[in-house]
Amino acid sequence: MDAVLFDLDGTLIDTTEAILTSLQHTLWYFTGEKRDKEHFRAYLGITLDEVLKDLVPDHARDAHHVYIDHNLGIHDKTVKPFPGTLETLAELRRGGLKLAVVTSKRRHSALYGMEIAGLLGYFDAKVFYEDTARHKPDPDPILKALDLLEVRRGSVLMVGDSIYDIRAAKNADALLAQIAVKSAGAAYGPSGRATLSEEQPDYILDSVSEVLSVFGMPPLT
Q1: How many Å apart are CA 119 and CA 129, to the nearest integer?
Q2: Which domains does the chain have, with CATH numbers?
């Protein structure tokens, strides 16, 4: 394989608590309704715009600012890389692989989270919400990443914790004649093994570092 594309939230950095808490706060702010955080888990992996249109349809525009302000305010305390993430990225780079982040998160928030987690220096390309008109499970974000990486043929791996990551990889693979797009479900993320297995990804990973085995690299020590 020539490159590895990673989703961000739930794949490289653990943001689940921050996302669920901020959605809980946003719903309460506009409706006074207090829901258990687990109620919002079904929204993980969907763009924030889509989530807020469903959650508070009469306040979606204002809700975006409320959510972002709350979310960024708790990032420092709640966001961290998954164990072994930095070491795994370093090994992949040493192995000559190109790396990209492909996220449905907006640029400012994504870069802030990556900075907190120490991830900024590892990637050859970054694709954010603003970079494509359509988002995962549409293949456009993956196609954008491949263009930025200048991958014209061969094979790549898309790693993500959401069913939308796997579907985006499959959709991209169906479109491309000279590039095989494989998928790996990050079962250590919030979706879990059972949900991801239903999408039949090429690989299931129980930790970030397990991606090394896909490339025949030794495990982290």
Answers
A1: 18
A2: 3-14+80-214 (3.40.50.1000), 16-78 (1.10.150.240)
